[in-house]
Design goal:
The chain is α+β, with helices and mostly antiparallel strands. It has helices at residues 3-23, 57-69, 71-81, 97-121; strands spanning 32-40, 46-54, 89-94.
């Protein structure tokens, strides 16, 4: 399948799942979850859904458990909203790239402050 079509399907799956998770799921275990990326396999049979959560590790794991529990419902709704021959099976993966970016920014900021302090003392 053409890469452009796969990219469009990835984007549409991400958009639809993002709205479904925020508007349709009422699981109390579900925290603040953002769908950061979706990657559909070339045969459209499986989709890795990368989600970012805000909160502690326990809250993130609880949110992932809630998403795994709701996977069949989300797949059914996805099939109703996106016209594909096969609705992909959903696999949820925690995306920690936002956390890593925040940590990196903190380290860079601290390093810049240390350099500025050294320059002032010279």
């Amino acid at each position: 399948m053409k890469p452009q079509r796969i990219a469009r399907i990835d984007h549409e799956v991400q958009r639809v799942l993002g709205s479904l998770i925020t508007q349709e799921l009422k699981d109390p275990r579900l925290g603040f979850v953002t769908v950061t990326r979706a990657e559909v396999s070339d045969d459209l049979r499986q989709c890795k859904v990368f989600v970012s959560t805000i909160g502690s590790r326990d809250e993130a794991q609880s949110s992932l458990d809630a998403l795994h529990h709701a996977a069949r419902f989300l797949r059914g709704e996805l099939g109703r909203r996106i016209d594909l021959r096969h609705t992909p099976e959903l696999v949820f993966v925690e995306d920690r790239s936002t956390e890593r970016a925040i940590e990196l920014a903190k380290h860079l900021r601290a390093d810049a402050e240390r350099r500025a302090a050294v320059e002032r003392t010279e």
